[in-house]
Amino acid sequence: MSSARHAQPGGPPRPLGAHMSVSGSFTTAVAEAVTAGADALQIFTKSQLRWQAPPISDAAAREFRAACRAAGLRFLCAHDSYLINLAAGGAELWDKSVASLAHELERAAQLEVGCLVLHPGSPKDDGAAEGIRRIVKGLREVLRLTAGNPVRLALENTAGQGATLGASMTELAAMIAGCDGDPRLGVCLDTCHAFAAGHDLRTPQAVAALADAMAAGFGLERLLLLHLNDSLKDCGSRVDRHTHIGEGCIGEAGFRCLLAESRFKGIPGILETPKGDDPTLADDRRNLATLRRLEADGAPG
């Protein structure tokens, strides 16, 4: 249930789900996953906009784990706080980011999710080389502080807005290499971010080129999950604006190509597409149905 696996020929379809709210309790997210017809789930383990969080009680963790099993969820992950920035230049923010990330890994382990998705961060005006150095230093410290924790860290590629790092597979590879290839480090591929950063996903050849770059940079065995989001902005815009599957510039053709890429087979997919206040989660249900249809269609002729 907790870790990504590449599907074997003839095996079950990839787990697909969405980021769901934990407002009220962690089991709220499980109930929403069931409503959406998902068999994968992403959550925040705490408020994404606050440093502090009340502890997770043993009872709440047990209830969440039992609910996930009862719902038949095959993949669970969490996303880190938006405040964390391991590339930060100020000692106070960097120290808080390291401590917070280590704490979130502990919370994720308590909930028994497989990986924690991490935005690499921004060095602002200090340059990519210095930012990557700080990220590596932070990752190494977090891994040291959480030695023995089974939860993996999934570095998420970015759209390259402003000075954010991780828009290229080369930068993600440098972060992993700087940590001596620690096996707990993996990657989350966000389709909107990749497209905005200049990876045109609309042909089988372009998707294969992206898979080649990932294989050469850090190895596809480190690809833990996909964030499946269409892009409101065109390829290379470096603007991060998610939209519904097939309603953006990647389009259904692009997602058909991506889902058909043999090296991405079996990798769980998580939606981070817009959703309103509809309790039936119609947007998520429609997006998941579209992805399943496109995957069933197979490679473009």
Overview in brief:
The strands form two sheets. An eight-stranded parallel beta barrel has the order 1-2-3-4-5-6-7-10. It has a two-stranded antiparallel sheet with strand order 8-9. 40% of the residues lie in helices and 14% in strands. With 301 residues, it is of the alpha/beta class.
Write a concise keyword list for the protein shown above.
single chain, about 300 residues, alpha/beta, TIM Barrel, two-stranded antiparallel sheet, 10 strands, about 40% helix, about 15% strand, globular
Topology:
Layout: E1 16-19, H1 26-36, E2 40-44, H2 58-71, E3 75-79, H3 91-111, E4 115-118, H4 128-145, E5 152-156, H5 169-178, E6 185-190, H6 191-196, H7 204-217, E7 223-227, E8 230-231, E9 242-243, H8 251-260, E10 269-271, H9 282-297
Parallel strand pairs: 1-2, 1-10, 2-3, 3-4, 4-5, 5-6, 6-7, 7-10
Antiparallel strand pairs: 8-9
Helix pairs in contact: 1-2, 3-4, 4-5, 8-9
Write up this protein.
The chain is α/β, with parallel strands linked by helices and 301 residues long. The chain has helices spanning 26-36, 58-71, 91-111, 128-145, 169-178, 191-196, 204-217, 251-260, 282-297, and strands at residues 16-19, 40-44, 75-79, 115-118, 152-156, 185-190, 223-227, 230-231, 242-243, 269-271. It has a single domain (16-297), classed as TIM Barrel (Alpha-Beta Barrel), CATH 3.20.20.150. The chain is built from nine helices and ten strands. Helix 5 links the parallel strand 5 and strand 6. Helix 3 packs across helix 4 (128-145), helix 4 (128-145) crosses helix 5 (169-178) and helix 8 (251-260) crosses helix 9. The model has no long low-confidence stretch (mean pLDDT 95).
